[in-house]
């Protein structure tokens, strides 16, 4: 059957992948309330389209940290992509490059920074988890720089791994034929089987729970690369991120995999944008599955969005072709949304093109018919 939207890859991936792998990719934390809310919240934002504007030419290009890309749709870091497809991160890197957009490589990729760089040209960011052993971190950052990565996305919402119950039930672990390639030479590339989630145990053993704002400054002493702080959900932290020298902020709840009952990212976005006061760009990830979602995020002040699960699901279904198709479908849907809203370029997308339930003076539940 022909695939006509991004979400359809989820069901195909579920059929194709071993249960342990699919569950790892799909799950959220605990009750998975935030997981559903990341999607549902988009459906409570409606359009106020403008008509009779010449939309025969639409320009979706934009600039992120000085890098020109073809559209404000980028790839979030998702770990262990070779569990989805043998080509894993190579396929994702090639698909992103072909689409003229940015791929973020996870620290926990099953391909190394050097291997991903060797797939060819492309603008790539490196996502960093800070290990207790700072020599490991310094080495890794240096390798990412040398491999031509253009920014560090510092993940700040994971001092411990969120409680993902499917992974606990499945005793999730990295399959023995794969390694966390960036850490292979450091003897940290394997994940032991444990009697709960192998990843949760790995995180508890290796990741630095004491990470704090002073480390954002420390990171700037070991690299010249711009730092995006990934995992901000409040105005308070947005201000601190700007003060700490961040080059940008990613509003993210880690795909609802960390703290459950945090708001959907699309609901947290506006307060972060206001607090950033235009001093740094603000991006969003979480639940973006449609071009309309991209438009809503931009209308609320995001400079761009990232997608996570659609990449691993489409990889599982069709490898590089699948990831290309996901990016193409989102591009076309976003372009259509712009045209039907009367916007010809990204700077024509305004707050007035949408209405949210928090815009109403006295929110009332809609009458049930
Ligand atoms: C992630 N995410 C993530 N984030 C990160 O900083 N480092 C990582 O290694 C991973 N790994 C990872 C694996 C899988 C399977 C998922 C689903 C997510 C979070 C990711 O970058 C992003 O925040 C969310 O995936 C965005 O939400 P959607 O698009 O998946 O709804």
TrEMBL record:
Q: What is a single molecular function from GO for this protein?
A: FMN binding
This entry carries the following GO cellular component terms, namely: peroxisome
What pathway is this protein a component of? Photosynthesis; photorespiration; glycine from 2-phosphoglycolate: step 2/3
Enumerate the InterPro entries for this protein. Aldolase_TIM, Alpha-hydoxy_acid_DH_FMN, FMN-dep_DH, FMN_HAD, FMN_hydac_DH_AS
| UniProt binding sites for glyoxylate | 24, 129, 164, 254, 257
This protein's source sits in the domain of life called Eukaryota
Q: Which GO terms describe its biological process?
A: defense response to bacterium; hydrogen peroxide biosynthetic process; oxidative photosynthetic carbon pathway
What are its E.C. numbers?
1.1.3.15
Mention any Pfam family matching this sequence. Answer: FMN_dh
Q: Domain FMN hydroxy acid dehydrogenase: where?
A: 1-359
**Reported cofactor(s):** FMN
Metal-binding as a keyword?
A: no
- Kindly state which reaction or reactions the protein catalyses: glycolate + O2 = glyoxylate + H2O2
Q: What does the UniProt keyword field contain? A: Flavoprotein, FMN, Glycolate pathway, Oxidoreductase, Peroxisome, Photorespiration
What family, per the record? Belongs to the FMN-dependent alpha-hydroxy acid dehydrogenase family.
Q: What is this protein called?
A: (S)-2-hydroxy-acid oxidase
Q: Which organism is it from?
A: Lithocarpus litseifolius
């Amino acid at each position: 059957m022909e695939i006509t939207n991004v979400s359809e890859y989820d069901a195909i991936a579920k059929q194709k992948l071993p249960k342990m792998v699919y569950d790892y990719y799909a799950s959220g934390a605990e009750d998975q309330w935030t997981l559903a809310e990341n999607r549902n919240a988009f459906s409570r934002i409606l359009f106020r389209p403008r008509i009779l504007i010449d939309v025969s030419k639409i320009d979706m290009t934009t600039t992120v940290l000085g890098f020109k890309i073809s559209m404000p749709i980028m790839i979030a870091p998702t770990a262990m992509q070779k569990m989805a497809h043998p080509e894993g991160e190579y396929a994702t890197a090639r698909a992103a490059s072909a689409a003229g957009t940015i791929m973020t490589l996870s620290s926990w990729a099953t391909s190394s920074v050097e291997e991903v760089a060797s797939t060819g040209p492309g603008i790539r960011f490196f996502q960093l988890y800070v290990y207790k052993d700072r020599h490991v971190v310094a080495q890794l950052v240096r390798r990412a720089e040398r491999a031509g990565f253009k920014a560090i996305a510092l993940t700040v919402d994971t001092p411990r791994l969120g409680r993902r119950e499917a992974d606990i039930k499945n005793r999730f672990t990295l399959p023995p034929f794969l390694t966390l390639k960036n850490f292979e030479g450091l003897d940290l590339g394997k994940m032991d089987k444990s009697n709960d989630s192998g990843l949760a145990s790995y995180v508890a053993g290796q990741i630095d729970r004491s990470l704090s704002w002073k480390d954002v400054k420390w990171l700037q002493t070991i690299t010249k690369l711009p730092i995006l702080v990934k995992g901000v959900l409040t105005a308070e932290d947005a201000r601190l991120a700007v003060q700490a020298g961040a080059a940008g902020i990613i509003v993210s709840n880690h795909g609802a995999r960390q703290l459950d009952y945090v708001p959907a990212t699309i609901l947290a976005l506006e307060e972060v944008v206001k607090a950033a006061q235009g001093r740094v760009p603000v991006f969003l990830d979480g639940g973006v599955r449609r071009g309309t979602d991209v438009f809503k995020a931009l209308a609320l002040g995001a400079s761009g969005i990232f997608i996570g699960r659609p990449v691993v699901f489409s990889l599982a279904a069709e490898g590089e072709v699948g990831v290309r198709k996901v990016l193409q479908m989102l591009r076309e849907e976003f372009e259509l949304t712009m045209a039907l809203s009367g916007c010809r370029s990204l700077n024509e997308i305004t707050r007035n093109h949408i209405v949210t339930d928090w815009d109403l003076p006295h929110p009332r539940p809609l009458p049930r018919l």
